[in-house]
Amino acid sequence: MNMNASTEGQLRSRRKAAKMLVCVVVMFAICFLPVHLLSVLRLTVKLTNSELNQAFSLISHWLCYANSAVNPIIYNFMSGKSSACPLIPSHVFSHRTKRFAIVKRLVKDGGFKVFKLKA
């Protein structure tokens, strides 16, 4: 019975990761489609250098850069651990972070040790 709950949890987390991946790929396609469309049109139709084409080129390149800004937002909202303020990472508010601190202290065997802090 416990194994079924474990496998269900793994399946749920894999589905969540797959949805997040699909969302990231779709946003990538949306953000990069205009610049690739513009490149294809420049090669095939021989677009003129009008103000409209320059504006479209500027917006399409801006969308490419905006894709990098959109990805952390997608990760934050689709993680399921979203905090009260979306600009602050959710791990800042977690119970575990308040109770424990990971102190990167080299131990004789070369590993790291977790020390429990007193509340």
From TrEMBL:
The question of whether Plastid is a record keyword is answered with no
Query: Recorded GO terms, molecular function?
Result: G protein-coupled receptor activity
Write down the species.
Answer: Brassicogethes aeneus (Rape pollen beetle)
This chain's protein is named: G-protein coupled receptors family 1 profile domain-containing protein
Query: Which cellular components does GO assign to this protein?
Result: plasma membrane
Q: Does the keyword Calcium apply?
A: no
Membrane topology of this protein: Multi-pass membrane protein
Q: Where in the cell is it found?
A: Membrane
Q: Which UniProt keywords apply?
A: G-protein coupled receptor, Membrane, Receptor, Transducer, Transmembrane, Transmembrane helix
Kindly list any coiled-coil regions of this protein: none
- Output the InterPro entries linked to this UniProt entry: GPCR_Rhodpsn
* Residues passing through the membrane, by range: 20-39, 59-78
